[in-house]
Amino acid sequence: MKRQTVLILFTMLVFLLTSTVSVFANPTVKYQEEAEKLNVLHIFKGTDKGFELDRPPTRVEGAAIFVRLMGGEEEALENNYPHPFTDVPKWGRPYVGFLYYHNLTKGVTEDTFGSKKPMNATAYTTFALRSIGFQDTNGDFKWRRAADKALEIELIDEEFYQELKEEAFLRDHVVHLSYLLLRQPVKDGSGTLAKKLLDYGTLTEEDLILLEILPEEDDD
User: Fold this and answer.
1) 117: closest CA among 87, 96, 90?
2) Which of 82, 98, 121, 190 is a plausible cystine mate for 76, CB 3.0–4.6 Å?
3) Smallest Cα–Cα separation from 59: which of 98, 113, 103?
4) Helix or strand (DSSP H, E) at 173
5) pLDDT for 152-173, tens place per residue?
6) For the chain, what are the domain ranges?
7) What is the pTM of this model?
8) Closest CA to 64 of 38, 99, 39
């Protein structure tokens, strides 16, 4: 009887443990460590629910990360440029205003930015390419084929290219693409995006070490 009771209790314990794992483990999240590093650098910020890497990003969230990757957050917050969009939350207004002021966004209509709409892989990859100097408006790439351009310049590899093409676009993908961007040479040949942000004073050499990017030496 005791043996049977022990077996029942053991079975219940195993069930509870495996159930707990299934609740908290999320196989879709691959880039948690990169999210933590970008969070330290104030490039990727979570919500009151954490990083939420397993859900799609909104357009306003993508806009904020894009501005930070361009080194424009200080300017955005200081100037809080006006814009015509009526659907932008208060926290996101400086970022959207920055993009509008610099002709980097037109919104989805004349008076809406589409803030709560999901940002898809094509839109964020387009933002990513613009942050390193490639412009769809002057023929550097076609925005509908932004992922193809990212693969061509080796910003992303074939495996991640397939993820962008075949999987739902999540905040997890935003993290990885943003992380890769920091290592990517900008179009004008002046170094990586991380070096550009270092020159702006947005990142420090310690930040580059955290990102496992060696500080670049200036030419003599």
Assistant:
1) 87
2) 98
3) 113
4) helix 171-182
5) 999 999 999 999 999 999 999 9
6) 28-210
7) 0.81
8) 99
